[in-house]
Amino acid sequence: MLLSEILASKIKVYAFVGPSGTGKSYRAQMVARDKNTHFIIDDGLLIKDNEVIAGKSAKKAPTKIETVKKALFFEDSEKEAIVKAIKKYRPQSILILGTSDGMVQKIAANLGLPEISEIIYITDVATEQEMQTAKRIRMTEGKHVIPVPTFEIKKDFSGYLLDPLQIFKSKGKGNKPYISEKSIIRPTFSYMGKFTISDNVFRQIVEYLAIKAPSIHKIMKLRVDSFGEGVRIYMEVTIVYGYNVVDGLKLFKEKVCKEIGKLTSMNVEEIEVVARNIFVPDKEEE
């Protein structure tokens, strides 16, 4: 699936090039704004303003080699998803990020885009000191940046998010201030090691929320299974008489998903809440 010649000819392609870890993704939106483009291709993702509209982050790949392959769109399925989105949104221009001239040219060619009209280099927008600082953080802390808000990538990076929401303020071209949201993650292939969250942590969160829920009298049974990037929860509860069972359980489930996501950056892959009993308060308790 390639872009039609008519559509491709109308797209102006820019590239933003610099060595890995020098801060390209951190400054991508600034460069895109300077070039009056709303679309960015970065590490397997097609981003429109602050929204991921197609692709899967290459930083989620299990190895460095797989990361490069995904960033270059070697697989037809990954390539087709991006091309389909480009056809849908029909952008006037696109900014491609890469570590070398050859890489961005390869990405453009694989997606059927026209030749790159202009290449901006990281040295054009960042000082040597800023690039060295970015490299040091990459090497010592394993931190990578994705130029979109956390809610856009949480599903793919549950458990790998380091800073849920970053607001970056700086000066753009002509000293125009701008604000862009970014997410700091540690890729799957990071050498910094893994971390785990005990099932007991999720259990305690759920139990605390149940105590606070007016429609739930008590938890009768609770099972939490954590795996890789998410958790599955099964629980049986006693409902307080007078509350709508369906609405009460739905509200409780939404609260559990929200709080676990906020406190642990993990996805709740599945949650099942079964009402087993009804508790009728005494008149004195009422």
Task: Give keywords.
286 residues, Alpha-Beta Plaits, alpha/beta, Rossmann fold, 12 strands, 10 helices, 31% strand, 6-stranded mixed beta sheet, single chain, 2 domains, 3-stranded antiparallel beta sheet
Protein model, in words:
This protein is an alpha/beta fold and 286 residues long. The chain has 2 domains: 5-185, Rossmann fold; 199-279, 2-Layer Sandwich (Alpha-Beta Plaits). Helices cover 38% and strands 31% of the residues. The protein has helices at residues 5-9, 24-34, 64-71, 76-89, 101-110, 122-125, 128-141, 150-157, 199-212, 245-264, and strands spanning 12-17, 39-42, 45-48, 51-55, 93-98, 118-121, 144-146, 161-171, 177-185, 216-227, 230-240, 267-279. The strands form 3 sheets. A 6-stranded mixed sheet has the order 4-3-2-5-1-6, sandwiched between helices. A 3-stranded antiparallel sheet has the order 7-9-8. Strands 10-11-12 form a 3-stranded mixed sheet, covered by helices on one side. The longest helix has 20 residues, at 245-264. The N and C termini lie far apart (66 Å). The model is unreliable at 148-155, 157-186 and 188-193 (pLDDT under 50).
